[in-house]
Amino acid sequence: MNRTIVLLIILGLAGGLLHARKTFFPSRAERAREAAAMPVSVSVPPAQTVRGPAVDVYGRDGCGYTRRMLADLQAANVPVRYYDIDLPAVEAQFHSRFKHEGIMRDGGYELPVVAVADQSLARPEPASVIYRFRSR
Q1: Considering all CA atoms of the chain, what is the largest pairwise distance in Å, rounded to the nearest integer?
Q2: SS3 22
Q3: Residue 53: which of 112, 97, 114, 117 has the closest Cα?
Q4: In terms of CB atoms within 10 Å, which end of the chain has fewer, N or C?
Q5: Which top-level group of life is the source organism from (predicted)?
Q6: What angle do CA 109, 110, 116 make, to 5 degrees?
């Protein structure tokens, strides 16, 4: 009887700890899923109007990761040139610019693809892009 109670207490504590870890310390994949599911409205000026140093973001309007990246960069006051790769001319420019960068995975790209401080990154964390832009 005592062993049963001790075992139930141990299992309860283990379950509670696992739940707390999952709730308060989500994995990168879980954070990415949550970010992609969040509706974000972003208004980005056309790429041609941004002068001087800026972060080049290539993505799709319907991509949650792209919307989150743009929103976080704008919130940090980082100048952005956004290119929608669903447009044929931009898609051709995108492929010619990044085909030899080594960021293609399984025959495709993880969006958004970001060019900052002479580096090309596929689906980076917004905080790392902001850091690289400010420390260039």
Answers
A1: 75
A2: helix
A3: 117
A4: N
A5: Bacteria
A6: 90
State residue 24's pLDDT score.
75
Query: Which residues does 38 contact at the CB level (< 8 Å), separation at least 6?
Result: 64, 68
Phi/psi for 39 (5° steps) reads -75, 125
Q: For the chain, list the strands marked E by DSSP.
A: 55-59, 80-84, 113-116, 119-122
- 3-state helix, strand, coil split of the chain in percent (to 5) is 50, 15, 35
Share of the chain above pLDDT 70, in %: 84
**Whether 71 contacts 42, CB under 8 Å:** yes
Three-class secondary structure of residue 43 per DSSP: coil
Q: How far apart are CA 47 and CA 21, in angstroms?
A: 42
Quick one: 91 exposed, middle or buried, by C-beta within 10 A (0-12, 13-18, 19+)? Answer: middle
Residue 37: which pLDDT band, with cuts at 50, 70 and 90?
Answer: low
From the list 104, 123, 101, 121, the residue with the least C-alpha distance to 112 is: 123
- 3-class secondary structure, 118: coil
Helices 126-134 and 64-75 meet at what angle, rounded to 10? 40
